[in-house]
Amino acid sequence: MTIQVNITPNGRLxxxxxxxxxxxxxxxxxxxxxxxxxxxxxxxASQAVARAQAIARRFTEGNPEASVDAFLARxxxxxxE
Length: 81
Prior knowledge:
- Helices cover 42% and strands 15% of the residues.
- By secondary structure, the chain is of the alpha+beta class.
């Protein structure tokens, strides 16, 4: 879906209420803006977290040494704790 929104002279734009409601932004909340070659992508906080988790899974899938626990254990061993 493509919609047009206007930017005010002070640089603000408003998302239509129907979109804010669908994204769970009815009471306000953080929105993350990503600039790409094709334009701008807006993501809610939960969408940004889900995307980061998916990227992390791509790089760590099937590698038990990539867990946080394994990382902390290596750091402890390296520091002599």
